[in-house]
Amino acid sequence: MPNPRPESRPLAFVSLVSLGGGLGGVARYGLSVFVPGAWGLFVINVLGSFLIGVLMGLVPKPLVRAFFGVGMLGGFTTFSSYAVSWSWALLATPVCAVLAAFLGLRVTR
């Protein structure tokens, strides 16, 4: 019986994460054009966290989670913004993001 864990197929895992990360980064840029600045980052991070919660509640397959969760939503959310900008929106992001992920998980279960 083949091992369904992502570590058993590292090339597939890395490929899916890479492709998803690229798509997520493009989606983040697209949304940041419409909602610029710190509030745009806040919306992106909270929305991405909510979608991660939904994903974890709905999708049991590790490679699908790798593509959408680690890759696409990892590339979509941008917690690295703390390195360049501080504001109320960015300070509130961790709390709101965790609550959004919890809510997304609860909604799907």
TrEMBL record:
Q: What is its main location?
A: membrane
Q: Does the keyword Transmembrane apply?
A: yes
Q: What is its subcellular localisation?
A: Cell membrane
- Activity regulation comment: Na(+) is not transported, but it plays an essential structural role and its presence is essential for fluoride channel function.
Q: How does it sit in the membrane?
A: Multi-pass membrane protein
User: Which reaction is this enzyme known to catalyze?
Assistant: fluoride(in) = fluoride(out)
Top-level taxon of origin: Bacteria
What does the UniProt keyword field contain?
A: Cell membrane, Ion channel, Ion transport, Membrane, Metal-binding, Sodium, Transmembrane, Transmembrane helix, Transport
Binding locations of Na(+): 74, 77
Q: Which Pfam families match?
A: CRCB
Instruction: Give TM regions.
Output: 12-31, 37-59, 90-108
Report if keyword Ion transport is assigned.
yes
Physiological role: Fluoride-specific ion channel. Important for reducing fluoride concentration in the cell, thus reducing its toxicity.
Q: Member of which family?
A: Belongs to the fluoride channel Fluc/FEX (TC 1.A.43) family.
Q: What is this protein called?
A: Fluoride-specific ion channel FluC
Q: Give the organism the record lists.
A: Lentzea sokolovensis
